């Protein structure tokens, strides 16, 4: 599904069903110099402020970025001696980053820090990914989860009714109507925090929604302790698409 992710063919296909998804938007996401700087600096600041149980500062050596594209988001800290990205899209990583294509190979890399940024909302089974990360981290290893805070704050009961199911099936017969309903849903969720009647909650790339409670409770139940968290707005390069993000740093017990 993610082979050739965000290449020209991907952009044209998505543009067909989302007319606002232009080449400019596609190229900006993940590759804008400004965006890279904002995201890296945020994580670096978070790591620099993290404290070990003995009161010493956190020092990382081997970093694995899960679903990290080319590895361009890995922090540039002097203590880091090895960088790797676990990526299934087949994309070539940036210089100095090792490409890993399976969790088995990721275990052999022996990371002391795993970062999973803006990935879990794309996965059919996000828990499996966190479990795999947990298995290859030794005691004291760090796990950083970053998620977009793009979920509706509340969803009217209408959207779990049989009527809504029939309505979406009807819209699927008329692509232009579906596009309009999708746009209404996108705008209403962004500006008033919930979808309004007549809209649809389309799940294309983001098929899961998380918040601090859902992330923290699940990760802690798997044997981690939360160290620190932070909210910020990692610009997409296209202001109308910008949403806040939550980053949470955990330590393996």
Write the CATH homologous superfamily of the largest domain: Vaccinia Virus protein VP39
Provide the low-confidence segments as ranges.
Answer: none
Give the biggest beta sheet: 7 strands, mixed
How do the strands of the widest beta sheet line up side by side?
Answer: 3-2-1-4-5-7-6
As for the CATH topology of the largest domain, it is: Rossmann fold
* Helicity level: 25-40%
Oligomer class = single chain
CATH class annotation of the largest domain: Alpha Beta
Distance between the termini: 35 Å
CATH A-level architecture of the largest domain: 3-Layer(aba) Sandwich
Q: How many separate domains make up the residues?
A: 2
Q: Please, what is the average pLDDT? A: 88
Strand content: 15-25%
Order of helices and strands: HHHEEEHEHEHHHEE
Structural class: alpha/beta
Determine Rg (CA atoms, Å). 19 Å
Estimate the global geometry from the Cα principal axes: globular
Tell me the number of strands.
7
The helix count comes to 8
Give a verbal description of the structure.
It is a single chain. The chain is α/β, with parallel strands linked by helices. It has two domains: 8-150 and 206-252, Vaccinia Virus protein VP39 (Rossmann fold), CATH 3.40.50.150; 152-205, no CATH class. 35% of the residues lie in helices and 17% in strands. It has eight helices and seven strands. It has helices at 8-17, 23-28, 33-49, 103-109, 126-136, 162-171, 175-192, 212-221; strands at residues 62-66, 82-86, 98-100, 113-117, 142-148, 224-232, 245-252. Strands 3-2-1-4-5-7-6 form a seven-stranded mixed beta sheet, with helices on both faces. Helix 5 links the parallel strand 4 (113-117) and strand 5. The longest helix is centred in the last third of the chain and has 18 residues, at 175-192. The protein is globular. It starts with 7 loop residues before the first helix and ends with a strand.
């Amino acid at each position: 599904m993610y082979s050739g992710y965000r290449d020209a063919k991907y952009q044209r296909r998505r543009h067909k069903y989302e007319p606002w998804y232009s080449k400019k938007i596609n190229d900006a996401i993940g590759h804008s110099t400004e965006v890279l700087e904002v995201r890296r600096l945020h994580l670096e600041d978070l790591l620099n402020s993290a404290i070990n149980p003995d009161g010493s500062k956190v020092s990382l050596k081997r970093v694995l970025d899960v679903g990290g594209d080319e590895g361009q988001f890995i922090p540039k800290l002097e203590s880091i001696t090895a960088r790797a990205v676990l990526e299934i899209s087949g994309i070539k990583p940036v210089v100095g980053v090792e490409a890993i294509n399976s969790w088995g190979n990721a275990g052999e890399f022996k990371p002391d820090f795993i970062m999973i940024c803006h990935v879990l909302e794309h996965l059919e089974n996000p828990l499996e990914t966190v479990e795999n990360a947990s298995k290859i981290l030794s005691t004291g290893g760090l796990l950083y989860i970053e998620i977009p805070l793009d979920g509706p704050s509340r969803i009217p009961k209408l959207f779990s009714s049989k009527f809504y199911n029939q309505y979406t099936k009807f819209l699927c017969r008329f692509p232009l109507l579906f596009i309009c309903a999708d746009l209404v849903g996108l705008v209403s969720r962004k500006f008033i925090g919930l979808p309004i009647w007549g809209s649809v909650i389309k799940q294309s790339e983001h098929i899961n929604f998380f918040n601090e409670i859902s992330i923290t409770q699940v990760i802690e139940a798997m044997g981690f302790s939360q160290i620190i968290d932070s909210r910020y707005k990692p610009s997409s390069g296209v202001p109308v698409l910008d949403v806040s993000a939550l980053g949470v740093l955990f330590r393996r017990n």
